[in-house]
TrEMBL record:
Its main location: membrane. It comes from Algoriphagus pacificus. Belongs to the ABC-4 integral membrane protein family. The keyword Heme does not apply. Keywords: Cell membrane, Membrane, Transmembrane, Transmembrane helix. Residues 87-313, 503-697 form the MacB-like periplasmic core domain. It is a multi-pass membrane protein. It comes from the Bacteria. The chain crosses the membrane at residues 88-108, 352-374, 398-426, 446-475, 496-515, 743-765, 792-811, 826-849. Pfam families: FtsX, MacB_PCD. Residues 357-469, 743-856 form the ABC3 transporter permease C-terminal domain. The lineage of its organism: Bacteria, Pseudomonadati, Bacteroidota, Cytophagia, Cytophagales. This is ABC transporter permease. It is found in: Cell membrane.
């Protein structure tokens, strides 16, 4: 340890405090073992100012006094000011990487802190359901009567709250001049008062008791209240929910923080749900489960989730959902709700870890740049180091001098990155569909992270160059005999460049694979025609009125076909039930999707009929069309054998004859398999018009459709969506991830380009004499270009050999989430290699070509 200290500090200092050091070590050796004494003594040496350990002596004071620290930074600033290109490259590269890290920090922070601000988040659970028949099906909902039975009979819950999430509702304000319609995609939440005892959403005005005592009362967040009523007092004013239920504002809630999954902002008394959806609100409804009917529990202290699940097991046996379906109730922790994809979690932990890895890669790339440039530049400073050592400078002083220079660059980069990250938050919210705000940076935790980032980057980027430059021999340095082998050498620098190439190639491969998969998912043949199809939602009206409106649409020029239906072929929605084959047959455990359509559905969406005929017009269920997958699951190999067979569903309440078989189409995203499906007529379920437009007809048909709508339904909100846009929403998380990969890959490549540009400028300067001699001896431009080309070509190929298996492994795992996926073909890797080569040529081309055309007379004369 004394030898280490002699190496690290000036010898005079060790002479002053060697006695103290030995005394401290002996004292530690008596009170603990040798290993603990060594470690403790090492820490004591590093913390020399620790009171009562070592008294500060004069040499130590001289080393750490203010004047010396000031001198370090003054010299460092002068060196950086003189080398503006070097400083600009490093500050720019580090600032870009740190900006990305700060934005990634904000994204990760807001996701991992979701709903952790409630009073007892570790005791809050949601009851979820798993249903098993021929396959397993998970839902975040519970049967409607279950929460009430738990409240009456069980003791594990301190508070139990039943809620219903009504998505994409229409809010109408009749108090303003004319009707004002608001389509709320986040919907409204029907809640019991206990909800606000479990979750910490403070009131500004009103009382939670109103939810129980006042029928049709509603609580609004401050933001929603201002949206509907402006700055006036909203208490006592009314809104209309889906043009059916009049709600009276009874309370105003504080605006919710961005890190919560409860973003509706409209909370309606649960009693109103009995008017909104009476069949689902029935306390005897055990025959089905809606994923929007949810139950939250605040466990009593001393109860575990396992204890509660044991109590819930009896309800699944006593109140079965159906004869062939086995249900299991379990408790999902609040911290799991945001991430669990099984229960429609809105975020992916794997995606967040990918972002964290990308942030690390970007920082690592920028640090590699710094090390490469600093070591390449070290030879230019060898005489400076030699002169300092001759004048009495010691290695530790030179080491900290170079660390100080690195610290200046890193601090400048962090300051610049703070400005950039603040400015980019609105764009990040738009790109990633999140709710970040600058308050995520206003806390002690963030400033601690910033300090660690500053210290970590300074040491990571500055340690090796400082160590190398501090070790120059003064005699060799002053004679100009220091070589690249003593300044990190080309081998170490090559390794750093290869590491940089590996990171960029992995990112490029990920980018190419993700783009290819999303293109495959959105542009492949889905089994139906999705181009120029407009979906228009209609509220409950008579079938005759809907048919009359349908005929009006068909008269519009540019409208090819119109179908009344429950939903589009791919919508993520559909009634799922067990079916039986044969009249009066028991239902099997085959869960099947039923879509309610009219006779124009096949033609509107271009579905292919393989056998039989289309449905005849009907108001009720009489005839059925089935897909190939359903027949395979029923064990029917020949579609002709299915013709005329009777299918029963919905507990025998639905019965129809198979009259046709249609070709399979994708009813959901490429993440899932094609479902067993049947199509049938039922006028009560028609909630949408599917309008097929002539491709290239422009917007004129849409204007005329809206005019027809307003003429016939002046009090109904007109809303439409293109089917291909709806399909794109299935891949929102992948699209956001792709955007992130695109942005961060571009930045990583740009940082790499800056590093290569700076490095080649130093390499060209070192090889100026060699290039001049080669040209004098007859070497042409191509020979000069080859000197650099073969060097970087080898590095690119070596990096490719490392990056290919890493990229293949990562992308193979990412593609596992898709049931229908692209192959990792060889051309994807060739594109990655070619991209890497092109980036390198662009980065180094200017300096290399300029060097190749230098006049050897000028370069050799200078030498």
């Amino acid at each position: 340890m004394i030898q280490f200290f002699r190496w690290f500090c000036h010898a005079d200092m060790v002479d002053y405090i060697e006695g103290d050091l030995r005394e401290v070590y002996d004292r530690r050796l008596k009170t603990s073992g040798k290993r603990k004494a060594d470690w403790g003594f090492f820490i004591d040496v590093l913390l020399l100012f620790r009171p009562g350990i070592i008294s500060p002596r004069k040499p130590f004071q001289n080393l750490t006094n203010y004047a010396m620290l000031k001198n370090y930074f003054k010299i460092g600033w002068r060196n950086l000011s003189r080398n503006k290109e070097y400083s600009l490259i490093n500050v720019t590269g580090l600032a870009m990487s740190i900006t990305c890290c700060l934005l990634i920090y904000a994204l990760v922070k807001i996701n991992f802190s979701t709903d952790n601000f409630h009073d007892s988040p570790d005791r809050i659970y949601r009851i979820v359901t798993e249903m098993k028949s021929n396959s397993s099906y998970h839902t975040s909902g519970v049967p409607t009567p279950l929460p009430g039975l738990i409240r009456e009979n069980e003791s594990f819950g301190e508070e139990i709250a039943q809620i219903y999430l009504a998505n994409n509702v229409l809010i109408t304000n009749r108090e303003s001049d004319g009707l004002q319609f608001y389509r709320e995609e986040e919907g409204v939440v029907f809640v019991q008062p206990e909800f606000f005892s479990i979750f910490n959403f403070p009131l500004i005005s009103g009382s939670y008791k109103s939810l129980e005592e006042t029928p049709n009362s509603v609580f609004l967040t401050k933001e929603k209240a201002q949206k509907y009523f402006g700055e006036g007092d909203p208490i006592g004013r009314s809104l209309l929910l889906d043009k059916e239920i009049e709600l009276t504002v009874a309370g105003i809630l504080q605006d919710f923080p961005p890190n919560t999954d409860f973003q509706s902002g409209i909370y309606v008394s649960y009693q109103s749900f009995k008017s909104y959806m009476p069949w689902l609100a029935s306390e005897n409804f055990w025959s089905g489960i809606s994923g929007n009917m949810q139950c939250f529990v605040l466990l009593n202290k001393g109860f575990s989730s396992q204890d509660a699940e044991k109590s819930l097991a009896s309800y699944a046996d006593k109140y079965p959902i159906s004869q062939d379906t086995k249900s299991t109730y379990s408790l999902q922790p609040l911290s799991d709700i945001h991430f669990n994809p099984v229960y429609s979690g809105s975020a992916s932990k794997s995606s967040l870890w990918v972002l964290i890895a990308i942030g690390f890669f970007l920082l690592f790339t920028a640090c590699l740049n710094f090390v490469n440039l600093a070591t390449a530049r070290a030879l230019r400073r060898s005489k400076e180091v030699g002169l300092r050592k001759v004048m009495g400078g010691v290695r530790s002083q030179l080491f900290w001098q170079f660390i100080a220079e690195t610290g200046i660059i890193v601090t400048l980069s962090i300051f610049l990155s703070l400005i950039l990250s603040y400015s980019l938050i609105p764009f990040v919210n738009q790109w990633f569909g999140c709710n970040l705000d600058v308050t995520v940076y206003y806390n002690v935790e963030f400033f601690g992270f910033l300090g660690l980032l500053d210290l970590g980057i300074t040491l990571l980027a500055g340690f090796y160059p400082a160590f190398i430059m501090g070790g120059f021999s003064p005699i060799q340095a002053l004679k100009g005999k220091s070589s690249h082998l003593k300044v990190g050498g080309f081998n170490i620098r090559r390794s750093l460049i290869i590491a940089q190439f590996v990171i960029s190639q992995v990112l490029v491969l990920a980018l190419v694979v993700m783009m290819n998969q999303l293109k495959y998912a959105t542009q492949s043949d889905l089994g139906f025609d999705k181009e120029a199809v407009v979906m228009v939602t209609i509220e409950n009206d008579s079938l005759n009125f809907k048919q009359a409106l349908k005929n009006e649409f068909l008269r519009i020029p540019g409208v090819v076909n119109v179908s009344l239906c429950e939903s589009a072929p791919v919508s993520g929605s559909g009634w799922r039930t067990n079916i039986g084959l044969g009249q009066g047959a028991e239902e099997s455990d085959l869960l099947t999707i039923i879509k309610m359509t009219d006779e124009n559905y096949l033609e509107t969406f271009g579905l292919e009929l393989l056998e039989g005929r289309n449905l005849n017009p009907s108001d009720t269920v009489k005839e059925l069309l089935v897909n190939e997958t359903l027949l395979k699951n029923l064990g029917i190999a020949d579609p002709q054998e299915a013709m005329g067979r009777i299918v029963t569903a919905n507990g025998g309440n639905m019965e129809g004859e198979i009259v046709g078989v249609f070709k399979d189409f994708h009813d959901n995203s490429f993440h899932t398999e094609i479902s067993p499906m049947l199509l049938t007529t039922d006028a009560r379920s028609y909630g949408s018009f599917a309008i097929k437009l002539n491709v290239g007809a422009g917007v004129e048909p849409l204007r005329e459709i809206e005019e027809v709508w307003k003429d016939n339904l002046p009090e109904q909100y007109f809303e439409y969506s293109f089917l291909d846009d709806s399909i794109a929403r299935f891949y929102e998380s992948e699209t956001r991830m792709l955007k992130g990969i695109q942005i961060f890959s571009f930045i990583a490549i740009l940082i790499g380009c800056l590093g290569l540009y700076g490095l080649v400028s130093f390499m060209v300067a070192q090889k100026t004499k060699e290039i001049g001699i080669r040209k004098v001896l007859g070497g042409g431009v191509s020979n000069i270009l080859w000197i650099f080309g073969k060097e970087f070509g080898r590095l690119i190929l070596l990096a490719f050999l490392v990056a290919s298996p890493i990229g293949w492994f990562l992308m193979k795992n990412w593609l596992q989430d898709f049931k229908f996926q692209v192959d990792l073909d060889w051309w994807l890797f060739i594109v990655t290699l070619a991209t890497s080569a092109a980036i390198t040529v662009i980065s180094i081309g200017y300096h290399v070509i300029k060097a190749a055309f230098l006049n050897p007379a000028n370069t050799l004369q200078t030498e």
